[in-house]
Amino acid sequence: MRKSIDYKKFTKIVISFTLISIFSLSSSAETNKQTLSVGWELWYPYQYHDVKQDLVGLDFDVFNAIIEELQLSVNYTELPWKRHLLYLKTGQIDVAMGASLTKERERFAYFTEPYRLELVKLYVKKGHSEKIKLSTLSELPTSNYMIGVESGYYYGNNYQKLINNSDFQAHISEAIDLEQNVELLLKGHIDGLLVDPITMKAFVDKYRLHNEFEQHSVPIYQDGIHIMLSKKSIDTTMLKKFNAAINTLKNNGKLSEIINSWTNLQGE
After folding, report:
1. What are 193-222's pLDDT values in tens digits?
2. Which of 6, 53, 67, 175 has the fewest other C-beta atoms within 10 Å?
3. Contacts of 97 (CB under 8 A, 6+ apart)
C-alpha cells in the first residue's frame, strides 16, 4: 500500500529547490557575465562624442583597454549622472566610469582600484614657474600673487579651508570659466590659474595655445578616480578581474601611456 503524500511538505520542498536553482543561475550569470551595460554622461574631455560621433575621451580610452584585457563586450547608454547612480542601485546598469569613492556609494556599488587621479594643478605662463615662489597654497596671503579659479569648482579640502580666510581670499580671482581665466593670465591680470591637466590639455589643443603655459610644482589637490560596479548585477569575482586588469595596464605602462596622451602639453 502506497503512503499518502504530504502535499504541504512536498510543495515546500519544490519551492525551496526552485529558489536555490534560481539563485544558483543568477549567481552564475553574474560571475560569467560577458556583456556589461555601461552608463556615461557628456563630460569633456573625459567622455564625449567626437566629430564622427564615436565615443571618445580619457575615461573611454582607459575603460576600453580594460575591457579588451578582460575580453568582455559592452553596451553603452548615455544618461544623467543622478539617474546613472539610481540604475547602479537597482542593477539596471552594471558600470560607471570616472567615479569618486564615497561611503554612500559604497552601499550599492563596488569600487575598483583607482585608475587615474583627479588632479588640480597651478598653471602659469611658460617660463614663469621659477619666478613664482610658492611651496604651498597657505603661503599665498604673504605673497604678491593673484591666482584665478572658476566659480563653483572644487579644489580640495585644503583650499576649502583656506578660502574662509579673508587674507587668502584677497589673492583669489574668481572667473566664470577657464576661457576667462586664460585671458586674464595672458594679459597679466593674474599670475596663474587652477585647473585639472586634462581639461587644460583639451583647451590648449582646441585654441592652439601650445608653448604658452606650464605647470607649477605647488601641490593643490588630487584624489583617486575609480570604476563603480553595481552590487545588484555584478559580483566580487568580476571586481577582482577588473582590479587585475587595471594592475596589468599599470605594470605594462599602457595606463600611463593613455593618461599622458591626454595630459601632456606640447613643449613641456
Report:
1. 999 888 898 899 889 999 999 999 999 999
2. 53
3. 38, 40, 46, 47, 59, 60, 62, 63, 227
